Amino acid sequence: MKRIFAAVVVTALMIAWTGCGENPFSPDGWKVKKKDGFTLHWRVVGSDLEAKLEGPSTGWVAVGFAGSYLMHDANIIIGAVTGSSVNIRDDFGINDKTHVSDTSLQGGKQNVSNKSGEEGSGTTTIHFTIPLNSGDLYDNVLSQGKTYNVVFICGDDGDDDPDSDYKQISATSITI
Ligand SMILES: [Ca+2]
Ligand SMILES: [Ca+2]
Q1: Which of 14, 26, 66, 111 could form a disulfide with 148 if both were Cys (CB 3.0 to 4.6 A apart)?
Q2: pTM for the whole thing?
């Protein structure tokens, strides 16, 4: 009888954990933000930010961190899955609607690692790691506990060209 009671308590606790969307004390450290069909998971690991973005497109998906308005001045990580290959690029928002690769800007560097991803039915998910402070002018320094603008962006279904026009853009904020 005691054992059954313990099992019920454990199950109730597990439901309580998973029911909290932005619980900063989740056991594995992940936080989550959902907006307009996008889901971003993130967590700080040492001096890095590990992230997983799912977006409502079979084309490219992107997230922009700490911009001023929409894409402007945001550190944008953009990726697409084409067959078995995953391409993820480190970009920067040069105005509210335009982003370019950091490498195309003077002194800019690619600072994304641990890249992977998968395509679902109508969705694309990308996983990546970025430094909280890369030292690159075209990334933005992030500090744990602080709140930043984020923007979620995607291209048309099947459009894996990161330089093509976007289909959807949604602005929100997250606390790192
Ligand atoms: Ca960079
Ligand atoms: Ca960047």
Answers
A1: 66
A2: 0.85
Distance 163 CA to ligand 1 centre (A): 17
For 34, the 3-state DSSP assignment is strand
The string of pLDDT tens digits covering residues 86-106 is: 999 999 999 999 999 999 999
- What is the C-alpha to C-alpha distance for residues 74 and 65, in angstroms, rounded to an integer? 5
Give dist(CA 160, CA 81) in Å, integer.
7
- Residue-range domain boundaries for the chain: 26-175
Ligand nearest the Cα atom of residue 112: 1
CATH assignment of 26-175, among 3.30.70.100, 2.60.40.1210, 3.40.50.2000, 1.10.340.30 = 2.60.40.1210
Residue 93: nearest ligand to its CA?
2
- Tell me how far the alpha carbon of residue 16 lies from the centroid of ligand 1, in angstroms: 38
